[in-house]
Amino acid sequence: MSRVTIRHENPADYEAITRINDLAFEETAQSRIIHELRDSGEALWSKVLLNDDKIIGHLMFYKILLDGAPIAAGLGPIAIHPDYQRRGYGGQLIRDGLAEVDPAQHQIIFLLGHTSYYPRFGFSSELGAQYKSPWPRPAFMGLKLNEAAPTSGSLTFPKAYL
Ligand SMILES: CC(C)(COP(=O)(O)OP(=O)(O)OC[C@H]1O[C@@H](n2cnc3c(N)ncnc32)[C@H](O)[C@@H]1OP(=O)(O)O)[C@@H](O)C(=O)NCCC(=O)NCCS
C-alpha cells in the first residue's frame, strides 16, 4: 500500500509543483499565478501531497481583502497529477488545507471551481454571490468559517488572478 503524506512546500518543491499544475491544467497559467502569489507575498500557505515520497498534488491558499480588510482567503490553485485523479487525493488536500485556517483571522474562504465538486466541502455559490467580485456565479463559491463575518462587501483579489 502506498503512503500518503501532506506537508508545507519548500523551495526544493517548486519545480515539481509547477510540473503538476501544468500537467493537471494542461496549460501554464496556474503555475504562473502560483509564482506571482509567492513573489508578491500574497500566498498564505501552500502544501504538497506525496505518494511514497513523490509529489503528486498541490494546493495553495492566498490573501483576499473584504472591504479592504485581510479577513478572507482564497483556495487555489489545486492540482492532482492526472495519473492520480479521482482517488480522493484532492479531497484530502482540501480538508487538510481548510484545517489550517484560523477562523478568527480568515473568516470566509472563496474559490472559483466545479460546482459538482466543492459543495461537498461546504462551499456554496449562494454565499459567493453575496459578495462583489469579478467572478461569475455559480462557479464562484464561499465557505463561511466565522459567524461574525460580514454578509456582504467587496472582494479584492491578488493582481495575479486578474
Ligand atoms: C479537480 C481535482 C483537484 C480533484 O482532485 P481529485 O483527487 O481528482 O478528486 P477526488 O478524488 O478528491 O474527488 C473526485 C471527484 O472530483 C470531481 N472532479 C474531478 N475532476 C473533475 C473535473 N474535471 N470536473 C468536475 N469534477 C471533477 C468529481 O466530482 C469526482 O467525483 P467522481 O469521481 O465521483 O466523479 C483534480 O481532478 C485536478 O487536478 N483536476 C485538474 C485541475 C483542476 O481542474 N483543478 C481545479 C480547478 S477548480
Entry keywords:
162 residues; alpha+beta; Aminopeptidase; eight-stranded mixed beta sheet; 8 strands
Query: How many domains, as an integer?
Result: 1
pLDDT averaged residue by residue: 97
- Cofactors and ligands: coenzyme A
**Shape label:** globular
The second-level CATH architecture is 3-Layer(aba) Sandwich
The number of distinct β-strands equals: 8
Q: By helix and strand content, what is the structural category? A: alpha+beta
Proportion of residues in β-strands: 25-35%
CATH topology: Aminopeptidase
CATH superfamily: Gcn5-related N-acetyltransferase (GNAT)
Largest sheet: 8 strands, mixed
CATH class: Alpha Beta
Percent helix, as a range, is 10-25%
Query: Would you identify the regions where 5 or more consecutive residues have pLDDT less than 50?
Result: none
Order of helices and strands: EHHEEEHEHEEE
Radius of gyration: 15 Å
Provide a brief overview of the structure:
By secondary structure, the protein is α+β, with helices and mostly antiparallel strands.
Describe this structure in words.
The protein has 162 residues and is of the alpha+beta class. It has a single domain (4-161), classed as Aminopeptidase. 25% of the residues lie in helices and 34% in strands. It has helices spanning 14-25, 29-40, 89-99, 125-129; strands at 4-8, 43-51, 54-66, 69-80, 108-112, 131-132, 140-144, 153-156. Strands 1, 2, 3, 4, 5, 6, 7 and 8 form an 8-stranded mixed β-sheet that branches. Helix 1 (14-25) packs antiparallel against helix 2. The mean pLDDT is 97. The site of coenzyme A has 16 residues, from helix 1, strand 4 and helix 3. Coenzyme A binds next to helix 1, strand 4 and helix 3.
